[in-house]
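Side project, low priority. Logging it here so it doesn't get lost.
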Amino acid sequence: MNIRSAVFAGFILACFAISPLSSSADSYDSEKPPAIFVDEGACPFECCVYRDWLVTKTTTLFDKPHGKKITGHLKDGMKVRALTGIVYVVPTKMRVVFGRKSDRTESYEVGEIIYLLTNLGEGWHKVWHRGEIISDELDIYEQDENCAIPSEACWARVIEDHRNEEVWWVKIQIKTGEIGWAEVDKNFDNMDACG
């Protein structure tokens, strides 16, 4: 586990202690998402797919995400089966600065607060909007994050940027049938169905 992951894991554990976990399967009544959004089954980039993956560096397997009990080790070059994943996301808070209606009939009003959750790739995200989780195209990576001149192209201003604060765990099965969890940190290949 690298330093960034260790710090983030500590942050997640602290948030677990003060805030109840919510997953994408829960129903939401609040206008504000949980401190850590837990997205079970997520594969967080375009064309991401759970299938046979190749291990690209030595990786430790645990009994569960963020677990302490080591169940095995994966060696560089091993072929493993990625079964599913869980992504832990710190929501990015944004304020709508230009009214907009999305392609899916979702409307955003000036002054509203929205939160980016899981990155789905190609500008698409799971979004917390009015207490609900939706999927929408929010291509904020190519815009001026301060939206000095609000427009259709630059319609939401980042207030609290946590886009790089996510941890992805994958459930792995090895050839012998044993199963464990590994944090994804540039340690697997063959994850992208498009490439």
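Brief comment: Residues 3-18 form the longest helix (16 residues).
Revisit when time allows.
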